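Supplementary Methods, section 5.1.

A reviewer requested that the exact input to the structure prediction be made available. We therefore reproduce it here, unchanged from the version used in the analyses.
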Amino acid sequence: MSSAKRLKNQQAREQRSSMVGFRTAQQTRLGEAHMKLIGAYSSPYTRRVAITLRHYGIAHDIKKVTPFGDTKAWLRRINPVAKIPILELDDGEFVTESQVILDYLDTLAPKGLRLTPSTGPQRRKIQNLCGIASAAVDKLVSVLYEFHFRPIDKVYKPWTKMCDEQTADGFKWLNAQLNDRRFFGSQITQAEITAAVFWQFAVEKRARFCERMNCSQLQALSEELEQTEPFLATMPEGPIRDGITLGTRD
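The structure derived from this sequence is encoded token-by-token as follows.
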């Protein structure tokens, strides 16, 4: 692809991003700090952090690792439970857990640009929405792991049924909170980013299961944001989840 065409595509992505409420790196660049994100875009938790970094225009590299295999011992030296994502700050400090990382990144942004306010009712609402989304995707992953790691005759069906119900209830509740693809007027917040990322992950792994939920608002939100620059730049690399290949399920 020629440099002129790449520039044109970049400009088109940034225009779409601005139209839906994302700011470009040029609009929000926060100083000259350079950070390192440790994880993989195939992890929805890593991906929502990466999208937030791009939204805020924070310079960063990504070190693509997963918490299984040869990298697990290395990760333990940074995070004793070897979870991703991890954010390495420019002074060498490590911040772990995606919600903690997001909270830190918000402190770097000007008050009017924060994806989650520092105080007040809207902060609590956004955190609650993100918490429900996180719980829903955690239960979905629990079922994927159950079928991946256990022989089929050892899968505990009452457990997977309960997890499926919790996943569906969580996403349906989020869908009901949306009005024209937004939780709060026309504003993009961390709640929209997290809901879109987690829903897209769920659809990729269990498309028919998600289709039966009939979450049209979540689907529309995800489709819209997936066309913006921060989302396009952080597309998952493939069907790898935490260092293992997880098959899709109904």
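The beta strands are 34-39, 59-64, 86-88, 94-96, 240-241, 244-245. These observations are discussed further in the main text.
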